[in-house]
Amino acid sequence: MKDIAVVGAGGFGREVKMLIDQINAQSKKYNFIGYYDDGIPPETLVNGYPVLGGIDQLNEVKREILVVLAIGLPSLKKRLLDKVKNTFIKYPILIHPNVIIGADQVDIGSKSVICAGNIITVNISIGKHVILNLGCVQWDTIQK
After folding, report:
1. Residue 116 maps to a domain
2. Is 54 part of any domain?
3. 68 pairs with which residues across the strands?
4. CA distance 35 to 7
5. What is the pLDDT of residue 72?
6. How far apart are CA 130 and CA 70, in angstroms?
7. Which of 19, 29, 65, 96 could be 116's S-S partner, Cβ–Cβ 3.0 to 4.6 Å?
8. Complete DSSP assignment for 32-76
9. Does the pTM exceed 0.70?
10. Considering the domain boundaries, does residue 32 fall inside one?
11. Does residue 5 surpass a pLDDT of 50?
């Protein structure tokens, strides 16, 4: 199992922790070690797991760990991503076990998070660090 942490201990961070648990229920892949959050004091427990520090502490990690940026605001997510300089940090793709993914021309970008209830049909390209939250819907518009 690989160690994994979540940046952001707010609502979406806790949902990502739940997603990790649900992935592990299918197949043990991850060892959740805690959260990184600049706004919460280190060692604070969030749903029983520690805040390990902020981005500065994440940059001091001396071993490979997986990290998920559980930040919904794209501009803040980008700023935090730019601050992570640690080459030991790797970003997984997390996909909830009940997500339906078509077999024809589906490309899911690295570092993305796809939550429960999504259906990804065909001819879909998802970029890097994209979040598809619970039950997103694809709408096609046909113009005449």
Report:
1. no
2. yes
3. 6
4. 6
5. 85
6. 10
7. 96
8. EEEEE-TTS-TT-EETTEEB---HHHHTT--S-EEEEE----HHH
9. yes
10. yes
11. yes
